[in-house]
Design goal:
This protein is mainly α and 177 residues long. 64% of the residues lie in helices and 0% in strands. It has helices at residues 3-15, 20-35, 44-53, 68-78, 83-91, 95-102, 105-109, 117-127, 138-148, 154-173. Helix 2 (20-35) packs antiparallel against helix 3, helix 3 (44-53) crosses helix 5 (83-91) and helix 8 crosses helix 10. Bound molecules: fe (ii) ion.
């Protein structure tokens, strides 16, 4: 089995029972495939595997910190997945902003941040896909997050700060659409 096939199978095991989040994950994987033209060919399986796995931390069977990027990454590390996949999952979609809000920055720092087009493509795929898998623009996706979480929620506070920064990064790389 290939890396991507293994990732899709694990994601299905862990995320399909969660309902609509499985629709989101399948669409993020499809979107990652679309934007994968911006990354080197040898990096494409890494991007696609990370896209399949990015939200496994929502599975209650593996969650401990209740911060899904960290929970997902720790699980993958324990299961022996390649470090790049682990680190992409841990840091996806501005995780560092939310760990700052939640007081979890030290836990995140043990995982290196990959500052590459692969990370930007992963973030773009996630942030142009809605919670039920619908295609959204970046601005629509941020508006949807801010509406879904109340103003005193750490997620809401995170995206007030992170949205303009991640938007600039995406457009800088040319991966935004
Ligand atoms: Fe996601």
């Amino acid at each position: 089995m290939s890396l991507v096939t293994d990732a899709a199978a694990l994601a299905q095991d862990l995320v399909e029972p969660l309902g609509r989040r499985w629709l989101h994950v399948q669409s993020v994987a499809a979107r990652a495939e679309e934007v994968s033209t911006v990354v080197d060919e040898e990096d494409r399986p890494v991007l696609l595997a990370a896209a399949w796995l990015h939200d496994i931390g929502y599975a209650p069977t593996i969650g401990h910190s209740r911060f899904h990027p960290l929970d997902g990454g720790r699980y993958l590390r324990a299961e022996g997945w390649p470090a790049r996949i682990v680190n992409l999952v841990v840091h996806h979609s501005g995780a560092c902003f939310e760990t700052a809000e939640r007081g979890l920055s030290a836990e995140l720092e043990v995982f290196p941040f990959e500052d590459t087009p692969v990370m930007d493509a992963l973030v773009t795929a996630d942030l142009t896909t809605g919670p039920s898998g619908e295609r959204l623009t970046y601005d629509e996706r941020i508006a949807e997050i801010l509406e879904r979480y109340s103003a005193d929620d750490p997620v809401h506070r995170t995206w007030i700060k992170a949205a303009p920064i991640l938007k600039v990064r995406g457009s800088h790389r040319g991966a935004q659409s």
